[in-house]
Amino acid sequence: MTFKRVWTLLLLLAATTASTTVDAELAWNELSGEQQQVLAKFADSWDTLPAERQERLATGAERWLGMTPDERAAAANRFRQWRELSAERRATIRERYEIYLSLSPAERDRIRSNYQRYRMLKQERRQQIRQRWREMSPEQRQRIRERMREQRQQKPRSRDR
After folding, report:
1. Residues 6+ apart with CB under 8 A from 39
2. Are 72 and 87 in contact (CB under 8 A)?
3. Residue 21 above 90 pLDDT?
4. How far is 29 from 38, CA to CA, in rounded Å?
């Protein structure tokens, strides 16, 4: 699975698992007719769902209704890919996303910027980079991470000046 897909899944996961404070259950008849159609498979069990889950489902249905057919197809495909991941892989992605959320806004911006630069590379170059990374030992990878951290700390960025 490409990094872009994982990144998109992370964002979707964050949107669907974001903690919300919900005091009261959402009655099925409070949903719009369109939301009820999207969530039809939950109709019989709606009253037994936790209030937080009801709210997330209602919000997700509303988001789904606002999508174009192409966006819906892409979202359905990403969700299918997410379900096909092993439980261990999904747990790793969730954990990494939690780490990402704990970073400062500047660090998150840096990560997004680096990702965009990576996406601008030709496919061949991206494959070379991925292959080189896979062939490294964990110790080599850690040394690279440490070196990059040191370089960031020593070299002021143009927007920091």
Report:
1. 31, 46, 57, 58, 61
2. no
3. no
4. 14
